[in-house]
Each structure stands twice: as structure tokens, then as C-alpha cells.
Amino acid sequence: MIFFRSAKMGNHLIIAIDGPSGAGKSTLGRMLARELGLLYIDTGSMYRAVALAVIESTSTNEQDDVAVASLADRIEIDLGGDPDSLHVSLNGHDVSDRIRDEDVTEVSSIVSTIPAVRRAMVKRQRELGQRGAVMNGRDIGTVVFPNADVKFFLDAAIEERAERRLAEEREHNPQATYDQTLADITERDRRDTTRADSPLVAAKDAIVIDSSGQSIAEVFQRMIKIVREKQR
Ligand code: C5P
After folding, report:
1. In what helix (H) or strand (E) does residue 5 lie, and over which residues does it extend?
2. Which domains does the chain have, with CATH numbers?
3. Ligand 1 site, residue 142, Cβ cutoff 6 A
């Protein structure tokens, strides 16, 4: 794991970015981490690694919560690289591309509803972020780091989020359609917001940003201004 720390700050600044799929968390999180010299941690990739372990396991059924949680405890997940080129490895194998595939996306949305899986991931996330980080996910400001220095909740109209996801999906799968992507995002939003453990919700003290109709550069300027003001 490579740590990026800003000499300007010298402290362990934690910036939480939560929000639904396709809201721009990943792009903006990387930009903020780069600008501030902080470690960038994409917690979704950890749930994706668990999902891949389940898919690859011949003995673990994704519906068997106890078996999935036990697997989540045993696997080795490493996040490395810098904000511009992140690497995720599972039990020593680079799975950075594989975890973006559709089957992993689907299963990650299911395994992340299991409380014991969440507990295992949250523990790892707290360890990883303790020296400061930009961390994105669904429950960072509410559960993982409730005392984060700055909490953002990024949102955007579902149609716009589906368009953004479709553009990403088409890089791997030219057959991907808008209707299917919209349906998938709708279902994943439903699972994220209705699960009993750590549902997707803006923390009370989060700064909610709706990026609909705004460019990444505009949203970034807004976010960095807020962080700089907090640092004063
Ligand atoms: O962010 P991403 O889409 O890569 O996350 C994959 C899945 O992991 C999501 O469907 C979401 O349900 C879940 N997740 C979560 N909590 C987090 C990060 C991701 O439940 N902190």
C-alpha cells in the first residue's frame, strides 16, 4: 500500500464520499486524493473482491450468508497503486479488471447486504484509512468513519447515472444497453437503500451534492473549496 500524505496538512485527514452508483464518487475521489496528497480507498472494490471469491469458490453459495462471511474473513484483499492506477488483488492475484465485470457487480450488491461481511470489511477499511484517506463507498460517513473530517454525499438523477455507467460498461461490453443498465442501477439502489445493515443514507452532517447537469470539473472545484475551508 502506498501512502500519499500532504506536507501541507501533516495530519490524518479523512474525507468520506458516499452515494449511489454512477454519482461520480470514484472519479472525484481520485481527483481529490491526488490534489490533497492522500491515499484513495475505493471500498466498493473490497465488496467486489469478496463477490469474486464467492464466484470462484466451488463450495460457497452466494445465498449462504454464513459461508460467504467465513470466506470474506479468510481472503486476502490488497488495494495498491496510486489514485491514477489502482490495483486490487485477491489472494495475491491481480483482479483489478475482473472485478468490474457484470457478474461480479451483481454478486457484490448481494454479498454486501450480509452483516458479517460488512463487519469484516469495515474493520479492514478502518485500518487502511487510519492514517488519512479519501474513502468512497456507501457507509463511510455513517459507519466506517463517523468522525470523518469532511463528508460528502454525491448524488445525481438516476437517468444520468445510468448514462455514465453505460459509457463505462460499453468499454468492456459493446452490447450493453441503456434500458438494462438503468434496470440494474435501479435494483442496486434498492438493495443499497433498503438493507437492514448500514443502508445507503446521507450522514446528518454530510454535504449533499447533486451533480446532475454539472461537469466533473465544476463539482471538483466545489468539493476542493469545501475541504480547503475546513483546513483553515
Ligand atoms: O461502488 P461499487 O459499485 O464498486 O460497489 C460495489 C457494491 O458494493 C455496490 O453494489 C454496493 O452495494 C456495495 N458497497 C457497499 N458499501 C460500500 C461500498 C460498496 O455496500 N461501502
Report:
1. none
2. 2-226 (3.40.50.300)
3. no
